[in-house]
Amino acid sequence: MTILQPPASPQLEQPLKLTVSFTAACNLACRHCYARCNEAKGRPELTAEQWRRVLGEAMEAGVISFYFEGGEPFARTDFLEILGFVARRALTRVRTNGTLMTVDLARRVKSVGVASVYVDLMGARPDTHDWFTGVEGSFERTCEGVRALEREGVPVTTLIVLTRQNAGQIQEFLELSHGLGAKEAAILRLYPIGRARESWARFALTLNEQMDVLAGLRHPKGLKVMQSWHPNNGNCCWQMAAVNPWGDSIGCAYLREFVNYGNVLSTPFLETWRHPLYRELRAGRVDHSCGECSRREGTHGGCRATAFAFHGRWDAPDPFDEPLNDGIDLRELPGWMLQESQGPQTEAGS
Ligand code: SF4
Ligand code: SF4
């Protein structure tokens, strides 16, 4: 393998994609929730009117793809209105825990023009899933939600975040997804943010353990299987933006505890995009990367969020990338990650 400085990321005048963390409210209370849902934040979330203004501004600026998540976006009764407002004009996808999905709601999601829905499963078995969510019966309700969406013709991607507790169920997860009618299933890595950060040692696997799980999978015929490890986890900061429920511009949902580029209620969205640290992350400058993959896939040293979490530097390689792991044990977070307050810390990394 050749280790070299990768070419710089493409430079844009505006992001192509925006993640909208619509609300921090959720009807579940997952032990590993990266959004720390349902913990009091003491700040009012953006109203529907404010979201309309901000998202309208983003569409005017040229954002073409919107990804709504939460919390549980459907927990807010004004969500469908905002969804319809955006889905009429841009590619729109939604991430949900699926438990509030009914046939009627699935019909409305379809009718407003949502392109696809991502539904989280925490395990492939009821006891594992419900242990994570803290809500008995949530597994069955999530599965029903997937069925309702599929029945109404809304394409579903099922998601699972790989943890020590569900590592032995990933094959079952693929089969379950296939059986529920999903066309796609995605296995995501655990990020050290939110409640997962607090309980990291309990949930995290070594990189070898993670690779072994992925290597042992048999893909059911007709099911597209995605995963978020190297080289599929390239540095995508160059095209991304994200806004949290309170209007903070945070670049990406996975950067939520590390940066804050300004609040879109007081600063125009594109102005936050021009924040010096934001520009730096988008440039794709890393001290080393996998040469072959960087050229071929544009990986640019992998994800900036996990690079920063494990190295405390924005130009470090991503230790979840096998060729760039450099001997880091992913079960152990650096001391500062275990001690620091959880709020956005723009200055910490600048
Ligand atoms: S369902 Fe999703 S948003 Fe809700 S608590 Fe669980 S991880 Fe967080
Ligand atoms: S922090 Fe990671 S996942 Fe988020 S945009 Fe940057 S590279 Fe992509």
Order of helices and strands: EEHEHEHEHHEHEHHHEEHHEHHHH
- The portion of residues forming beta strands comes to 5-15%
Listed once per kind, the bound small molecules are:
iron/sulfur cluster
Number of helical regions:
15
Spatial separation of the terminal alpha carbons:
31 Å
Q: Going across the major beta sheet, what is the strand order?
A: 8-7-6-5-4-3-2-9
Biggest sheet features: 8 strands, parallel
Indicate the overall shape: globular
| Average pLDDT score | 92
Structural class: alpha/beta
Radius of gyration: 19 Å
Number of strands: 10
Show the helix and strand layout.
Elements: E1 3-4, E2 17-21, H1 48-61, E3 65-69, H2 79-87, E4 91-96, H3 103-112, E5 116-120, H4 126-133, H5 138-151, E6 156-161, H6 170-180, E7 184-188, H7 194-198, H8 200-203, H9 207-215, E8 224-227, E9 240-243, H10 269-273, H11 276-283, E10 289-290, H12 291-297, H13 304-311, H14 335-339, H15 346-349
Parallel strand pairs: 2-3, 2-9, 3-4, 4-5, 5-6, 6-7, 7-8
Antiparallel strand pairs: 1-10
The structure holds iron/sulfur cluster (2 copies).
Provide a compact summary of the structure.
By secondary structure, the chain is of the alpha/beta class.
Please characterize this protein's 3D structure.
This protein is an alpha/beta fold and 350 residues long. 35% of the residues lie in helices and 13% in strands. The protein contains 15 helices and ten strands. The strands form two sheets. The protein has an eight-stranded parallel β-sheet, with helices on one face. Strands 1-10 form a two-stranded antiparallel sheet. Helix 1 links the parallel strand 2 and strand 3. Helix 1 runs parallel beside helix 2 and helix 3 packs across helix 5. The longest helix has 14 residues. The radius of gyration is 19 Å and the shape is globular. The model has no long low-confidence stretch (mean pLDDT 92). Bound molecules: iron/sulfur cluster (2 copies).
